[in-house]
Amino acid sequence: MDRIRGFLMRPRRPGANVARLRRRKQLAAYLHRNLTKLTSALFIIGYAWMLLIPIPLLSRGTYIDENALQPAQVNTYWNWGNVHTADLQLYQLDGIRERNFTSEQRAEFFRTEFSKLGLAASIQNYTFSTSKGTISGNNAYAVMSSPRAAGTEAMVISASWLSTAGHGALNLRGISTVLSLAAFLKDYSLWAKDIIFIISDDYLHGMHAWLNAYHGTIPSNLHTDPLEHTSGVIWTALNIDYSSHSFSHLGVFHEGLNGRLPNQDLINSFRLISHYTGGVPMTVYDHLEPSDAVDRLPEQSVFPSWVPPFIQQSPQLQQYGYRVRNVIRHIGYQARGMCSGVHGLMHQFRIDAITLFAVPADGPHGFHALGKIVESTLRTMNNLLERLHASFFFYILTSPGTFMKIGMFLPSAILVSVAMLFKGLGEWVTAGWVCEMSEASLKGNETEKPSPAKGTWRNRRRPLLSALIVVVATHVLGVLVFNLICSRWFAKYPSFLAPAIFVAVSVIPPILLPLLSTNAPEAAPTSMLLKSSNLCLASTVISIMSLLNFSLAAMLAITMGVPLATSYTSSSTMTTHLRYAGYCMLAWGWLVLVPGEVESAIWNWEVLGVWFAPFICIVYAPLVMQAAIVCLQGS
Amino acid sequence: MSILVNEGLWLLDNNIDPYVGGAFRHSPLLLSLFSTIVPPLPIIWALSDAVGAWALLRIWRARQGLSSLKGTGSDVENLIVSVYVPSAYFEYAPNAPHSYLLNPYLLLPSLALSTSTFENTLTLLALMFASEGKVSPALLAIAFAVHLTPSSILLLLPILMVLLSSPVSHLASPRPFHGNLKRIPFLFGEFTLYWLVLVGAACIIAGGSWNWVRASWGASLMLPDLTPNPGLWWYFFTEMFDHFRPFFLMVFSVHLVIYILPICIKFQHDPLYAAFLLVGVLGTFKAYLTLADPGLFLSMISLFPEVHGYLRHPIITTLLHLHAALLLPLQHVLWVSEGRGNANFYYAASLVMGMAGGAGLVDACWAGMRIAVGDAKVGAEEKVEGKGKVMWEVVQQ
């Protein structure tokens, strides 16, 4: 007690506060002196981390988190008789394909098939209007009422007319699976949730129209009538994509619109069921694991053919290469906000959904295995008492059995964003000071280069107004460009308008820049303040985006990180113009370089509501243009 | 919130006591205002904001020692200069109303028809009357504010001090409080009188019952409704075991009150600045925080141009507010609409909001005290080891 009292009553050293202040000052000075080293280190660690994302060490094994799911714990009843039904359906569908049925005729056929089973079936007609014209189609759907519950919840089994496989492949076997499953499932009384069967037209827009009509969120460019039959809240959905003759693996596609992912429990349950009930190995996408790919064609190999054989045969590198492919495919879907299949449209309505893709092969699996797996998965989904919530929503599936938690990949983008923030704050501090040469030292020897050591450091004002005008103007320009590329004119003459817009947005800033009132000579130059605000804003965008859509944040960290941090005003006109052109290319080059991507991004925005296109035009490109203007201002 | 007001109006129309059932938490005065005098039209909120901006302008004039009737010739120019709030925040912001009307934290609650707009306007009116030395209107305004949100009681003492001394800036030249302290009991008595009259009126309007006291004032003390908001209270009390609740409710409430005396004593030479800091305390730690509370603090910064040069980290505060303003709606969507996130996501965003509020408050406190020390003109020639070193030496001095 006395010791405590003695500690509290001890005489204060008079210099303690001064020492504390001095220490703090020294720390700040040390940090500022080493700011370049610090930010470089953060950049390097961040980018290196991105490269390390596919290494197996950073992933961990998947597991089931929701106890109610009980995957692969039931006896299945799907048998060869049901396979025969599916074969008969397939025979009819082949007939439909050969007779080139129209969309209405097909939907009518599906509706009749559902009605024959005694299900409440109907057709939905829809029309989307886009800048490129209208898209219309017809969905057929049927609702099987749950024999055990009041129908407050529902599960969905769907198949689209076109397959993910592309090249106009038709999803005939997927559709016959859905039709024969409808006949099979209605004979059992164990369903506690309604089951909705949907055969959607085309690839994506059919299901999109159906979901919007079901949830009453019909956008202004969609014309459709309310659905005739409805059911409860849809919790989970399986989309079946089976276009080839037979399959060797079932691939899972899980990315949804705008970077949403389904709860991981769904994928993990499906993996266990596929393995133990159906005897079919699961893969991520249609990528076969290196151990499965030995007898495959060279184009399915992990490595391109020019890679030396000793690398191709190293198991560790094969594993790394396999995971790199998975991660890149994932980033390719997620960064652009695209969905990897029809299931992806459902995530925005809080439906956890995946697509089962039958990986084309000569064998050994077919309707028998697929039916059993879907039946067992439905039984697992039927067990749910609340929405899937226990497992992860933010993850990267690096291989069928392993995934990365958010803490294992998020820091890579955040570190880059922090480096940009430090750079921006450092620029802000630097802008507040100017070194003045004293008269005497200048007169002393005029030839010597003025060095900061000889001058007096003086505080200077940092008026932000002109920098903010530039920031606002670039974003307004972005909004204008976005409206332009969504217009009918752009859809009509893309090959003429795209280069024209590119030239316009590159030429306008240098023309308008002289109109901007520059800061007074005694105040900080506009370019420094612009660079500072630009880096801080870009860093904010990256760190906020990393939560919403990691892949997009990582892409932004790569495209904006170092380029924005290294924008500077150069004294040589040549270098200035080259740098300016480089930044323009980085900001708006996609208009000219990837017209296909532009078209699909606009389509995704207009029909599916993917905000990738507006984000690029209104946020990303203006930020890069601000860096370009920083380069211009020095000259 | 307007939805709650509408709820109360509906219950009243259907002859149901609005204070039973926990759906309605506003004062009977507000309810009677909207049920008998005017319907809750958006124009009321616009008017209220206009009055708030006008009050801010009058406070600024009183603080600068200008007559309130003096010409408004410079207003157009000022409008152009302070069109952008953050720029007004970094820079010399000569005039206040634009920073009030264009502050997104104040604009959005007004668009959402939140009653916090009225509370802010009443607070500003109280400060305005106090700055102009009008005793009774000031006390009536603060009585109204306290009646609507009991936590406004924090501002009572600094407002009394402004009434007794002057609103003119003495930050750079601290001196002991020179007002006549003997008047304080009379002023406080007058305030109590107004407050009691309001309570009586509310009781009469509420039909003689005291239900409304528990439902409206009790809410900020007992925290019955844990709907997420940008403040710091709700998450603690969702996580807390029930038997700790009374103790921590007491701790959180007392924590607010504890700031009054230290701030009023430290800034006894400039009570308006003390009021400003207490608004900042409310805007960070209040129960049922709305965006308008930190918004009022940020807008009031423009009243004190003399301290702007002494703020240590305005850009950090701005960035924190930028992050908070982006994260709050985003995390709310992730949690509530999309179901991908959970309560911790939104709470993390409200922590960022709390950090932003705290950073602004600490910085304002620092700048208000730092200005009294004056500028140290220390040349940097003495230490010339390196560029960065020299720079920071000067920054810290």
**Structural class, from secondary structure content of chain A?**
alpha/beta
CATH superfamily heading of the largest domain in chain A: Zn peptidases
Mean pLDDT of chain B: 82
How many helices of chain A? The count is 22
| Shape designation of chain A | globular
Helix/strand class of chain B? mainly alpha
Quick recap of the structure?
Chain B: It is a multi-pass membrane protein. The complex is a heterodimer of chains A (635) and B (397). With 635 residues, chain A is an alpha/beta fold.
What would you say this structure looks like, in words?
The complex is a heterodimer of chains A (635) and B (397). Chain A is α/β, with parallel strands linked by helices and 635 residues long. Chain A folds into 2 domains: 37-54 and 409-434 and 460-633, no CATH class; 63-400, Aminopeptidase, CATH 3.40.630.10. Chain A has helices at residues 2-8, 16-33, 35-52, 80-98, 103-116, 172-185, 205-215, 264-276, 309-312, 315-335, 367-382, 406-431, 439-444, 465-485, 488-492, 494-512, 526-548, 550-565, 573-588, 590-593, 595-608, 612-633, and strands spanning 60-61, 120-130, 133-144, 153-160, 194-200, 222-224, 233-241, 246-253, 282-284, 352-361, 396-399, 402-404, 433-436, 456-459. With 397 residues, chain B is mostly helical. Chain B has one domain (2-396). Chain B is built from 20 helices and no strands. The radius of gyration of chain B is 22 Å and the shape is globular. Classes of the chains: A alpha/beta (635), B mainly alpha (397). Chains A and B meet through helix 2, helix 12, strand 14 and helix 17 of A and helix 5, helix 18 and helix 20 of B. Chain B: It is found in: Endoplasmic reticulum membrane. Chain B: Pfam families: PIG-U.
Question: How are the SSEs ordered, and which strands pair?
Answer:
The complex is a heterodimer of chains A (about 625) and B (about 400).
Chain A: H1 2-8, H2 16-33, H3 35-52, E1 60-61, H4 80-98, H5 103-116, E2 120-130, E3 133-144, E4 153-160, H6 172-185, E5 194-200, H7 205-215, E6 222-224, E7 233-241, E8 246-253, H8 264-276, E9 282-284, H9 309-312, H10 315-335, E10 352-361, H11 367-382, E11 396-399, E12 402-404, H12 406-431, E13 433-436, H13 439-444, E14 456-459, H14 465-485, H15 488-492, H16 494-512, H17 526-548, H18 550-565, H19 573-588, H20 590-593, H21 595-608, H22 612-633
Parallel strand pairs in A: 4-5, 4-7, 7-10, 8-9
Antiparallel strand pairs in A: 1-12, 2-3, 2-6, 3-5, 8-10, 11-12, 13-14
Helix pairs in contact in A: 3-12, 4-6, 6-11, 8-11, 10-18, 12-17, 12-18, 14-17, 14-22, 17-18, 17-22, 18-22, 19-22
Chain B: H1 2-13, H2 28-37, H3 42-64, H4 75-81, H5 85-90, H6 97-101, H7 104-111, H8 116-131, H9 135-148, H10 156-164, H11 184-205, H12 211-222, H13 233-239, H14 245-257, H15 260-266, H16 271-285, H17 292-300, H18 314-337, H19 343-370, H20 387-396
Helix pairs in contact in B: 1-2, 3-8, 7-17, 8-9, 8-10, 9-10, 9-11, 10-16, 15-16, 16-17, 16-19, 18-19
